[in-house]
Write a structure and sequence with these properties.
30% strand; Immunoglobulin-like; 10 strands; 210 residues; globular; 5 helices
Length: 210
């Protein structure tokens, strides 16, 4: 993404842990220095797990050390970065509109005990947000305004994180909508089959890691 990095603090972030948030978001951004041999090995291994999760797993950054696959659960996967001692459940949007995006959008729930983060929602949108606008997450009849800027957004606070995760456990789909900087509105939709199990696996994977 030209001129964009998750290491940059979100302009609209109001949470006290936004510095840790930006570091965690940077850890989730895909691409990076993924060697050809390792990429091919990972691709062959994950292709059997289904095309919906292949892109998610390839989104993991690999910078000289591997990521552990804790499990693949329907539309979600759980992963652990043992070196950085962080875990996350992750998925890509349902098909329909985001495929033309120059980057791969995702939704993730992260656990990074060393940074004091547990159950932290992080979403990379399929479009950059128009300036001075917010994305809104809708799930089970509830709406949650998200903080952030460009294409990277988070829940407004820890209470919102907990409410969103609780809703994810009992609903089938969540959607994130916003005003695109390029014009018009967009919506990224996520199937939630397997989300609860993946979140639990990520939490357990880093439960005793400090």
């Amino acid at each position: 993404m030209e001129g964009h990095s998750l290491s940059k603090l979100p302009e609209g972030a109001s949470r006290p842990e936004k510095k840790a948030l930006s570091r965690f978001g940077a850890a989730l951004v895909f691409g990076g220095t993924l060697g050809f041999v390792r990429r091919m090995m990972l691709t062959r291994f994950l292709r059997a797990l289904g095309p919906a999760l292949l892109g998610v797993a390839l989104a993991l950054p690999v910078q000289g050390h591997a990521r552990d696959v804790l499990g693949i659960f329907e539309d979600w996967g759980a992963f652990r970065d043992a070196r950085q001692q962080r875990c996350f459940a992750m998925a890509q949007p349902m098909a329909g509109g985001w495929e033309a995006s120059p980057w791969r959008p995702f939704a993730a729930v992260g656990y990074w005990p060393r940074a004091g983060l547990r159950g932290q929602l992080n979403i990379r949108l399929s479009h950059q947000l128009a300036r001075n606008t917010r994305a809104v997450l809708s799930i089970g009849g509830q709406q949650f305004p998200l903080v952030g800027s460009e294409a990277d957004v988070w829940a407004a606070d820890a209470r919102a994180d907990a409410a969103i995760i609780a809703a994810m456990r009992s609903n089938r789909i969540m959607s994130i909508s916003g005003q695109a900087r390029s014009g018009g509105r967009f919506t990224d939709r996520y199937a939630l089959r397997g989300a609860a199990t993946a979140i639990d696996a990520a939490a357990l994977g880093c439960a005793r890691r400090k």
